[in-house]
């Protein structure tokens, strides 16, 4: 039976037969301490559990010290009672009795009648705890006597405590360490093997998502698994004070994190072996590693598309099938799925093009368009067609060229239904065949 011998808690971590109490001078084993406190004998060949939990272990040590103090105090009080009885026998003798001893008639058996024989009891030795007969005449009443006994008692206690207390060396102030509280006991999670402080709160993470309690943001429609996550989101997204980055002049809520992720990625601890890109956490690295594999284990429930991770599949479902567009333009009332798309759209109103090409100086509204444009300045044509000898500088040019081989027409006209292989060809047809005549009329 792997139970605590006192409170029956499962899986205790202390053994009664192996632990010893080294804080006291007697150095008793814990089994002897257990027998002394509870009169329970614990044997090595016992079929009953010989283990005890950490809480009961501390309580037994406290009770042992308490019982030892009680036994010691009882022995001291009994010794004090014996000493006080001897003192009273000396101090409370009547002066008349002492005088009558000297006035007794001489014994008839005595040879010298002028020197009577006096019977005197053996006097105790003068060791500081007892007084002689001559000093008894100084105490006229019981109050004086009790005060003397009390002073002797305190003197005895002080001497006894000085002998028992170990000598403590005084430490310097700069070396003194104040220990407020001991470290909390960590518990092991059976599912993941981690040592955690709060096992109940940690086990909540292993529950299914459908069984967890969700907390909705009071400002937007996002939901979170805990109050702390919701408060953090509200503090950053809705109440956060943004700071401007001196490198790219972008306003962000977390300036240090932005500089580390955007401008100093070489300091990130986790590196991808395939492409050398670095990430701030292992979970981000694992998510990136799915882009190097051809496995697509997460299919979309609405269409035939498959994705490498669940997050991308849910993002696709929200954007394409649910038509979720929460970011609204205040100038033209056009809505977008992502905030970044709204920011790019606002540049069409302001005619802002902040990204310039270093080769030709042409400006663009987004970094994606700039990156695609810079491939034109490359001398080599890295994208080759597999069906003919043609090669292209941009991948998009190769995709457009492949339509001439596959003859796939995916772009139908919205007016007459005629299909085209390229979207620009469809747009040209809609203008020349349908919209031009309508506008001129």
UniProtKB/TrEMBL annotation:
<keyword id="KW-0863">Zinc-finger</keyword>
<feature type="domain" description="C2H2-type">
    <location>
        <begin position="215"/>
        <end position="243"/>
    </location>
</feature>
<dbReference type="GO" id="GO:0008270">
    <property type="term" value="F:zinc ion binding"/>
</dbReference>
<feature type="binding site">
    <location>
        <position position="7"/>
    </location>
    <ligand>
        <name>Zn(2+)</name>
    </ligand>
</feature>
<keyword id="KW-0479">Metal-binding</keyword>
<feature type="domain" description="C2H2-type">
    <location>
        <begin position="383"/>
        <end position="410"/>
    </location>
</feature>
<feature type="domain" description="C2H2-type">
    <location>
        <begin position="411"/>
        <end position="434"/>
    </location>
</feature>
<dbReference type="InterPro" id="IPR012934">
    <property type="entry name" value="Znf_AD"/>
</dbReference>
<dbReference type="GO" id="GO:0000981">
    <property type="term" value="F:DNA-binding transcription factor activity, RNA polymerase II-specific"/>
</dbReference>
<dbReference type="Pfam" id="PF00096">
    <property type="entry name" value="zf-C2H2"/>
</dbReference>
<protein>
    <submittedName>
        <fullName>Gastrula zinc finger protein XlCGF28.1</fullName>
    </submittedName>
</protein>
<feature type="domain" description="C2H2-type">
    <location>
        <begin position="298"/>
        <end position="326"/>
    </location>
</feature>
<keyword id="KW-0238">DNA-binding</keyword>
<dbReference type="GO" id="GO:0005634">
    <property type="term" value="C:nucleus"/>
</dbReference>
<feature type="domain" description="C2H2-type">
    <location>
        <begin position="270"/>
        <end position="297"/>
    </location>
</feature>
<feature type="compositionally biased region" description="Basic and acidic residues">
    <location>
        <begin position="95"/>
        <end position="104"/>
    </location>
</feature>
<feature type="binding site">
    <location>
        <position position="4"/>
    </location>
    <ligand>
        <name>Zn(2+)</name>
    </ligand>
</feature>
<keyword id="KW-0804">Transcription</keyword>
<feature type="domain" description="C2H2-type">
    <location>
        <begin position="327"/>
        <end position="354"/>
    </location>
</feature>
<feature type="binding site">
    <location>
        <position position="56"/>
    </location>
    <ligand>
        <name>Zn(2+)</name>
    </ligand>
</feature>
<keyword id="KW-0539">Nucleus</keyword>
<keyword id="KW-0805">Transcription regulation</keyword>
<dbReference type="InterPro" id="IPR013087">
    <property type="entry name" value="Znf_C2H2_type"/>
</dbReference>
<feature type="region of interest" description="Disordered">
    <location>
        <begin position="95"/>
        <end position="139"/>
    </location>
</feature>
<dbReference type="GO" id="GO:0003677">
    <property type="term" value="F:DNA binding"/>
</dbReference>
<feature type="domain" description="C2H2-type">
    <location>
        <begin position="355"/>
        <end position="382"/>
    </location>
</feature>
<feature type="domain" description="ZAD">
    <location>
        <begin position="2"/>
        <end position="80"/>
    </location>
</feature>
<keyword id="KW-0677">Repeat</keyword>
<keyword id="KW-0862">Zinc</keyword>
<dbReference type="Pfam" id="PF07776">
    <property type="entry name" value="zf-AD"/>
</dbReference>
<feature type="binding site">
    <location>
        <position position="53"/>
    </location>
    <ligand>
        <name>Zn(2+)</name>
    </ligand>
</feature>
<dbReference type="InterPro" id="IPR036236">
    <property type="entry name" value="Znf_C2H2_sf"/>
</dbReference>
<feature type="compositionally biased region" description="Basic and acidic residues">
    <location>
        <begin position="118"/>
        <end position="134"/>
    </location>
</feature>
């Amino acid at each position: 039976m792997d139970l605590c011998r006192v409170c029956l808690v499962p899986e205790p971590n202390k053994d009664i037969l192996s632990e010893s109490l080294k804080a006291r001078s007697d150095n008793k084993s814990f089994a002897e301490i257990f027998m002394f406190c509870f009169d329970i004998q614990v044997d090595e060949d016992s079929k009953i559990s010989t283990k005890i939990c950490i809480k009961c272990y501390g309580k037994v040590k406290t009770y042992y010290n308490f019982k030892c103090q009680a036994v010691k105090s009882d022995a001291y009080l009994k010794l004090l009672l014996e000493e006080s009885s001897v003192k009273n026998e000396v101090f409370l003798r009547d002066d008349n009795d002492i005088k009558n001893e000297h006035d007794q008639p001489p014994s008839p058996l005595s040879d010298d009648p002028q020197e009577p024989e006096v019977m005197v009891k053996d006097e105790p030795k003068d060791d500081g705890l007892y007084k002689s007969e001559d000093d008894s005449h100084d105490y006229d009443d019981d109050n004086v006597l009790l005060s003397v006994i009390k002073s002797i008692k305190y003197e005895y206690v002080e001497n006894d405590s000085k002998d028992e207390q170990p000598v403590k060396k005084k430490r310097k102030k700069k070396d003194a360490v104040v220990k407020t509280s001991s470290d909390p006991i960590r518990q092991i999670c059976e599912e993941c093997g981690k040592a955690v402080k709060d096992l109940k709160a940690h086990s909540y993470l292993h529950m299914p998502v459908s069984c967890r309690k969700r907390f909705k943001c009071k400002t937007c429609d996002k939901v979170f698994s805990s109050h702390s996550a919701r408060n953090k989101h509200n503090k950053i997204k809705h109440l956060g004070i943004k700071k401007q980055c001196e490198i790219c002049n972008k306003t962000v809520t977390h300036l240090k994190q932005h500089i580390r992720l955007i401008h100093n990625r070489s300091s990130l601890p986790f590196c991808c072996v395939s492409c050398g890109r670095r990430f701030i956490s292992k979970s981000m690295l694992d998510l990136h590693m799915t882009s190097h594999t051809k496995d697509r284990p997460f299919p979309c429930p609405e269409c035939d598309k498959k994705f490498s991770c669940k997050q991308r599949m849910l993002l696709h479902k929200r954007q394409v099938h649910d038509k979720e567009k929460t970011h609204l333009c205040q100038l033209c009332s056009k809505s977008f799925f992502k905030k970044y798309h709204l920011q790019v759209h606002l540049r069409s109103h302001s005619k802002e093009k902040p990204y310039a090409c270093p080769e030709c100086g042409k400006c663009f509204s987004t970094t994606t368009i700039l990156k695609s444009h810079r491939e034109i300045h490359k001398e080599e044509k890295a994208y080759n067609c597999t069906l003919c000898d043609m090669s292209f500088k941009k991948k998009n040019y190769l995709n457009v060229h492949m339509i001439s081989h596959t003859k796939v027409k995916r772009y139908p006209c919205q007016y007459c239904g005629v299909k085209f292989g390229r979207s620009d060809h469809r747009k040209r047809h809609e203008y020349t065949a349908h919209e031009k005549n309508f506008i001129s009329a």
